[in-house]
Amino acid sequence: MSYAVVIPAYNAERTIVETLDSILAQTCQPSEIVVVDDGSTDSTVEIAKAHRAATRVISQTNTGCGGATTYAISLTSAPVIAALDADDIWLPQKMEQQLEHLAALGPSAISFTKSRQFHHDDNDRKKGVERDAIIRSTMVLHRPTFEKVGPIIDPPGGAGDMVDWLARARVAGFTLNILPEVLMLRRIIPGSMTYSAEDESHRGYLSVARAAIMRRRQAEQK
């Protein structure tokens, strides 16, 4: 299956080259790679444009990862969509295995994999914590799935956009399926949005988490 890769990026000059390199290392190559820069203040745009992997690099004012991901998807046309954060890394067999996984699961499913965490300043990529990764960087889905669920909405503070979207996907009848292999490396950078300790960010995350729980309960009661 033909697939497009969408990458939301914000101040990712330290990591985006390795991220793009990991796409070029795939045993099954994408037809499109779109980077949407979400108002970076560093050299992310220039670095992405200079990289041979990127089909298209677009800049927008800062709205959040959800908005950047949604915009990137709108710029692609492939029947299958794969997302990747600008600081994470795919292992070479990831897309080949996930395309087979998605084809076997059918149109009402979304494919994910396991991940292994590593610290940005540590070159050892084999000893980190491994876990099921129902996150943007392992998500592979059919385009009609995304169109039915709708845009990824950025909550206050920016954290939790995928929590809300995945909850909506479940309510819409899509199943979230995880391959048991580690096929993505998740980078830990102190001060990044994912690991931020700011109150506003956590409030936003908690608000979408609560909404997701309530939405699921309501769906189960129907």
Describe the structure in your own words.
- By secondary structure, the chain is of the alpha/beta class.
- It has a single domain, classed as Alpha-Beta Complex (Spore Coat Polysaccharide Biosynthesis Protein SpsA, Chain A).
- It is built from seven helices and nine strands.
- Helix 1 links the parallel strand 1 and strand 2.
- It is globular and about 40 Å long.
Supply the number of helical segments: 7
CATH topology: Spore Coat Polysaccharide Biosynthesis Protein SpsA, Chain A
What does the largest sheet look like? 5 strands, mixed
CATH homologous superfamily annotation: Spore Coat Polysaccharide Biosynthesis Protein SpsA, Chain A
Query: In CATH terms, what is the architecture?
Result: Alpha-Beta Complex
Number of domains: 1
Distance between the termini: 36 Å
Alpha-carbon Rg, integer:
16 Å
Helix content: 25-40%
CATH level 1 class label: Alpha Beta
Give, in spatial order, the strands making up the sheet with the most strands: 3-2-1-4-8
- Beta percentage is 25-35%
Query: What structural class do the secondary elements suggest?
Result: alpha/beta
List low-confidence stretches. 193-206
How does the SSE layout of this entry go?
Blueprint: E1 3-9, H1 16-24, E2 32-38, H2 44-50, E3 56-60, H3 65-74, E4 80-83, E5 89-90, H4 94-105, E6 109-119, E7 130-133, E8 140-142, H5 143-149, H6 161-171, E9 175-188, H7 199-221
Parallel strand pairs: 1-2, 1-4, 2-3, 6-9
Antiparallel strand pairs: 4-8, 5-9, 6-7
Helix pairs in contact: 6-7
